[in-house]
Structures are given as C-alpha cells and as structure tokens.
Write a structure and sequence with these properties.
Layout: E1 8-12, E2 17-21, H1 28-53, H2 56-74, H3 80-93, H4 95-105, H5 108-117, H6 119-129
Helix pairs in contact: 1-2, 1-4, 2-3, 3-4, 5-6
Length: 137
C-alpha cells in the first residue's frame, strides 16, 4: 500500500491556535483519523472563543450553530446548505468569528468528505466556498 505524507495546519482566531498533523500514515484510516482529530480540535477552539466573546442569547445561538455546522461537515454526505447558513449567521451576528467558521468549513478533512460525496455536492461546495483555495461568495 502506498503511503503519503499528511501535513498541514489550521489557524483559528486572533490567538492563532494551530493544530498540525505531520508524518506518513500507515494507512488511509490513520490519515482520516488525524484529519478528523484536527477538525474536532478546531471546533473545540472555536467553542472556547464563543464562550469568551459572545453574550447572552447570542452565545446560546452561536453554540447551537456550531453544533449544526459540526454535524453538517462530518455527515456522510456533507450538508453544504447548512455550511452556508451558519457562515452567514456568524457574518451577521458575530462577524469577528466568521473567519474562524469559514476556516472549519474549508478544512482539508471536510474537503475530502465533499470530494467523496460526489460531483453534485462538490459543485455546490465549490460554488459557495470556491475551488482551490478560493473563498467563494
């Protein structure tokens, strides 16, 4: 079996929380586990920022949107419409966190799930979030 080097980083927020995975995985499931772990760490960091920066009803709503987003990006068939909705919600209600939300949406692990979901999902994702490194809308 051929192995590939899996590495990268994700930067979330002003404090630059960096989660990096390096090395050649023994198999594809190890790479997937590392990618999912990196994504979950990003969600945990964003939840901490919400706890610090959001107030009252906005806090509760923001946590609910992040739960929805995590479900949408990790679904067997990623739910692009939910990703779009959550990003727009943060842009409107907590714009200081909108970039961190987008970072989770375009995370390499999510890209892999989108790619495996088929052409229709990939095209919708690309339309909203751009192709290779693009930001879309």
């Amino acid at each position: 079996m051929r192995t590939r080097d899996v590495s990268g980083q994700m930067v979330v927020g002003d404090d630059n929380v960096v989660v990096a995975v390096h090395g050649a995985p023994e198999d594809a499931s190890e790479a997937a586990d590392a990618g999912l772990e990196s994504l979950r760490a990003g969600f945990a960091a964003l939840r901490e920022r919400i706890d610090q920066e959001a107030r009252d009803r906005t806090h509760t709503a923001a946590r609910e949107r992040i739960d929805e987003l995590e479900e949408a990006v990790t679904a067997e068939e990623p739910e692009v419409s939910t990703m779009v909705y959550v990003r727009r919600w943060f842009a409107k209600h907590l714009p200081t966190l909108a970039g961190a939300v987008t970072t989770l949406i375009v995370h390499p692990f999510v890209g892999g799930l989108v790619e495996h979901a088929g052409d229709a999902v990939a095209a919708e994702f690309s339309r909203h979030f751009g192709g290779e490194g693009g930001a879309g809308e």
